[in-house]
Design brief:
251 residues, alpha/beta, three-stranded mixed sheet, 35% helix
Length: 251
């Protein structure tokens, strides 16, 4: 069965505000984005294991947004926002702490996922003092590191059964839509990407039928899933994956 494996984007586009807020988009290298977020979220004086655990969580959360096309699939022209109400804190132009920068240089192409899953974990976190959440506690990670926990042990204590995927490939970001319409009878890797995306979207929209076979063949079940997607999002339910201007599904 074909599987679309996550990759590290060379760049990531950040919206400097809430998703629907009129704000500027900035495109930065992915390592620079992670360094900015980590420098905005944690302290450079923390234990190395705590810094590593937090960097891996930041990387994984951002990669989940990229891999699932979370914002582009909703019609936005960016991959993540700068606000913690939705994503991770990013402050344009801020100073980067050297200890954090060194850790990011080492780990920016590693991420965490649940055992048995492909997609990077949407690794939620909070400071653990003024705000708590169902995810990693930043100050809690520091306390665990002081007790001798390693970064993997810290991550498993908060997220459960997760594993670190090292050395993910780095390439330029590209949308799942290949540029030409896909319809019943189409075959190939572009169809596989669409099938993976439909199954991911179906997690949030259960009315979309899941595809048991991700085989790169645009058959009746894929067509039915595309049509249901189109109906849910107010598009012409023609079963063709195309562009908004053609009245078909968006990328």
């Amino acid at each position: 069965m074909p599987v679309i494996f996550p990759y590290i984007p060379r760049t990531i586009t950040v919206h400097l505000g809430a998703p629907d807020q009129a704000a500027e988009n900035v495109t930065v290298s992915f390592p620079d984005y992670v360094k900015n977020v980590a420098s905005s979220e944690i302290y450079p004086t923390w234990e190395p294991a705590a810094i590593r655990a937090n960097v891996l969580a930041i990387v994984s959360f951002a990669l989940n947004r990229v891999y699932t096309e979370f914002y582009p699939s909703r019609g936005y022209d960016f991959q993540i926002t700068s606000t913690t109400a939705y994503d991770q804190k990013f402050i344009r132009g801020r100073d980067i702490f050297q200890p954090i920068s060194q850790v990011v240089d080492e780990f920016f192409d590693d991420y965490i996922r649940r055992v048995g899953f492909v997609e990077p974990l949407s690794a939620k976190f909070c400071n653990g003092t003024t705000v708590t959440c169902d995810g990693l506690s930043q100050w809690g990670s520091q306390n665990l590191a002081r007790q001798g926990y390693s970064a993997p042990e810290i991550l498993n204590s908060y997220y459960g059964n997760v594993e670190i995927v090292p050395n993910a490939p780095v390439r330029s970001p590209s949308p799942s839509y290949p540029g030409t319409p896909l319809r019943r009878g189409s075959q190939g890797s572009d169809v596989t990407v669409i099938q993976v995306a439909l199954n991911r979207i179906a997690q949030n929209y259960p009315a979309i039928p899941r595809l048991d076979s991700v085989d790169g063949i645009f058959g009746p079940r894929t067509e039915a899933a595309v049509q249901r997607f189109q109906e849910i999002f107010g598009l012409s339910p023609d079963g063709i994956v195309g562009t908004p201007s053609s009245g078909c599904t968006p990328p």
